[in-house]
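hey so i finally got around to running both of the ones u sent me last week. sorry it took forever, my laptop kept dying halfway thru and i had to restart like 3 times lol. anyway pasting them below in the order u listed, first the sequence line then the structure token line for each. didnt double check formatting much so if smth looks off just lmk and ill redo it

first one:
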Amino acid sequence: MTWSERTDASNFERNVAFLKQHVLPLSEAHHRHLTLFSHVPKTAGTSLESYLAQQHRLSDIVHINAPDLNRLPAVLTMKKHFPKLICGHHPMHGMLYQLLPAQPLVHFTVIREPISRVLSYFNYVMAKTDHPMHPIAVQSGLQAFIEASPSPELNNGQTRRFVGQLHRDPESDEALVHLAQQVLTDCFSAVLLTEHLVDNLSVMAPLMGWQTPQLPQQNRSPQHTSMDDLSPQTRSLIEHRNQADIALYQWCQNQPLN
């Protein structure tokens, strides 16, 4: 049975089992190991990818998101050797983890304070006129956009991504958070925070043999709406729709990087 023939739940279980076996703790990480950056949208991941690209030869890097990899899985083996750095948007039930060699690897991600992330997502859609949700955002405004929830990213998108439930009805918030905590603990070498990204990288860079982090500002969304513009009702709505993400972020704030 192939990845496309399995359910999301089955692929999630299979991927978790693989990662538990092969992901290294950060204390054992080194640049010689295969490195995966799992990019959660609107967490400063594009800036981080630019920094990571400076630490590797271009021939050693593959940047690809899940939909493109699903269409062309052979891209990982098109070069003379398997890539040393893979970056992109890949949920935990994604195909990527079933295409990796069975060897030690460094797997890390970045998460962001959920209210600012949702707001950044809305601003991104507002600024990108060719985005399929742009007309909805322009016509509805922020609160109605959140209420309509045209993207799963607006509703506990970080937590759902980590538990393989981004594109299906999720479990209760409590169950989501508990499972996501297990996944982040067992399947990731490090979980970085957007709000402390440079400090986090200052810890990770020496272990990986990377240069001192100086992050370029990439893919920053114009601020059509700022945090100060949020009405109490809109802020409350975002909080209500992202209770699991809020709880997971608070938990991550209290975890050691390595």
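and the second one:
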Amino acid sequence: MKSNYNYGSLAAFVDLTGFQWLNGYPRIFPVGSPLEVEIGFGTGEYILGLGVQNPAVNFIGFEQCPTRIIKTLRKLHQHGVANSRVMRIDAAWGFRFVLAPGSVNRVHCLFPCPWPKKKHAKHRLFQPAFLRLVRSRLKEGGTLRIVTDQQLYADWIEEQLAETGFSLARAAIGAVHGTKFEKKWQEGGQEQFHELVLTADQPYKSGPAEVPSVQTYSCDDFDPDRLVLEGVSGPVTVSFPEYLFDTKRNAGMVHAIVSEDQRMMHLWVVIERAARGWRVAPAEGTLVLPTEGARKAMELVFQAVEQSVK
């Protein structure tokens, strides 16, 4: 029986679990070599080709589907590609928390989901805010290249470009990438696709250069039997579905679900004895992206810990 988990090697997988963002952005490659990023690398055909054809360039791929990540890891391992890394992360959070400003030479995105219904337009990736974020991570003159099978989606992207810092060149191209989705459209009879090359050469209003950080807390006392966790609702929603306390280990674990910007994150927070008092911190082995929601969840747990002894 063929295993679905034959990834070959995890050498190309970047595990951000446990990274605390205390000293800025993760260092995935040595500084100096050109860096390119693929958004949604699918089953890895394109990032594999980029890595093989450009050994002096480093590549990072963002993808959320575990099965696709496994297939891509297997391809990279089988071809001995050492200059490509992949990670499981939403593209918007990847650009915000993984990539430092002005660090990227090129960004590639082949056949992103167009979310064709108007009621789903809010889910489309290339909104102005995301475009400005990508612009801030690109070097001056760097490019974002998007290829789509849908002209209406290409037109919509063009409409989003005002004040994002990009100039645009559009072209009709043939099937030249050899990816799974491109072949799918070909089999359906489509031979022409829509290419948008966005160049980072225009002025734009960027936000402050943020160096991510994660807050931990400490307090003098804590009563685990009186812990009452209360979530919040709104643009940032936090709920607490689980709380466990181990009396033998004198440590508790809180499960927080954070929803913000149409994205969701599961966060585990540990409450444990420290040298002095109690410590409230992300649990070891949990992925904590320093978003507003994650910070809010940590703050709410700490406040509940303090209230437990009042």
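quick thing i noticed on the 2nd:
The chain has seven helices and twelve strands.
anyway thats it, ttyl
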